[in-house]
Amino acid sequence: MLQCKDIRSGYGHLPVLHGVDLEVSAGEVVAVLGRNGVGKTTLLKTLAGALALRSGRLDLDGEDVSRLVAHRRARAGIAHVPQGRGIFGRLTVEENLTVGTRAAGSRARKTVLDEVFSFFPVLRDRRGETAGNFSGGQQQQLAIARALCGAPKVLLLDEPSEGIQPNIVHEIGALIPKLAQQYGIAVLLVEQNLDLVAHAATRCLFMDKGRIVHAVPTSALSDENLLKNLLAL
Ligand SMILES: Nc1ncnc2c1ncn2[C@@H]1O[C@H](COP(=O)(O)OP(=O)(O)OP(=O)(O)O)[C@@H](O)[C@H]1O
Ligand SMILES: [Mg+2]
User: Do 146 and 90 touch, CB atoms closer than 8 A?
Assistant: First the structure.
């Protein structure tokens, strides 16, 4: 489904990604972990096309999408929920979601809203309300819902647990693998909350200084010594 080979990118004169290789299959949830500043957000931005690839190759379903700009990658099926969510606070829930359906093109626009509401009943109840007044957790749910409105093949989630209450973190942790399996979405989840990772992901990639330096099955996270070593890289 999603495959990248030797991806490099950065900001101005600052190189950040120094050759990232990874693969995520349809229906699979893969977590990316690592200390602050190692390049996790930069990786997702690069995959989404918000930041240009300097070299390397990105394939979606075997097709090279490396040269597509962000909105074309979204159309091709790569949805990005950025760190900090990026929803439109002055728009209503429904308006935010309608923006999300644009990425779907003709693929799914009609049925998608009802389907998305079935996963997020709170959003259906508040569909006419302005999103800016919502709690952090509800805004995160809206951001994920908006991404789903594009009927994506790949979902890139950047720290969905950041600044939200534990009960919603649990809900999101249960929801992510469900969405992945039901729709065959390949999910790449950047996350520092190990509890969420343990619930949602089957594999974990550890990043350090712009590279993936270790890959372990999520079950290995229960080994505290190993985890300490991996996170202190
Ligand atoms: N817009 C930017 N312009 C210049 N440098 C940036 C920019 N965004 C990030 N960086 C730098 O790129 C490097 C990687 O940052 P990135 O945000 O990808 O890290 P991260 O792993 O997501 O960290 P965190 O866990 O804090 O979210 C850091 O050195 C950071 O200072
Ligand atoms: Mg980040």
Answer: no
- 193 Cβ below 6 A of ligand 1: no
Q: What is residue 60's predicted lDDT score, i.e. its pLDDT?
A: 97
Lowest pLDDT segment from 7-16, 79-88, 170-179: 79-88
Read off the tokens for 119.
């996963």
Q: Give 44 Cα–ligand 2 centroid separation in angstroms.
A: 9
The response to whether residue 42 sits with its C-beta less than 6 Å from ligand 1 reads: yes
DSSP string, 35-54: -TTSSHHHHHHHHHTSS--S
> Whole-model pTM?
0.95
CA distance 1 to 116: 22
- Give domain limits for the chain: 2-86+152-231
CATH for 2-86+152-231 is: 3.40.50.300
- Reply yes or no on whether the pLDDT at 226 is more than 90: no
Q: What is the whole-number distance in angstroms between the Cα of residue 190 and the centre of ligand 2?
A: 8
